[in-house]
Amino acid sequence: MNSPTRALSATETKNRFGAVLREVTRTGGPILIERGGRPVAVILSMEAYRESCQKSPPVSPDRRELAHAAFGMWAKRPDIHDDWLAQSRRQWRSDWANG
Predict the structure, then answer these.
(1) Under a CB-based contact definition with an 8 Å cutoff, are residues 28 and 45 in contact?
(2) What pLDDT shows up at residue 16?
(3) Model's pTM, two decimal places?
(4) Which one of 5, 55, 61, 75 has the fewest beta carbons within 10 angstroms of its own beta carbon?
(5) So where are the chain's domains?
């Protein structure tokens, strides 16, 4: 992963996926994929990926990060907590079973 990071839009990546894979194979990547100007993913060669996994184990996100990923701006609402989620799930299952 000695090459500088290249950024592509999700649309350009989709439209040129074969060329993107060839470039990653040749350079090792990384290629940063953006949607709406914001980074959302990275494409690496398998060699670069394996190397990065050996350097540091994957970090599991904490519950707040998971909530933010799932709920976005709603994640910081004080009324959304584990009990509320459990109650909502029970209600959803009940409505689904009775539907």
Answers:
(1) yes
(2) 92
(3) 0.50
(4) 55
(5) 1-59, 60-99
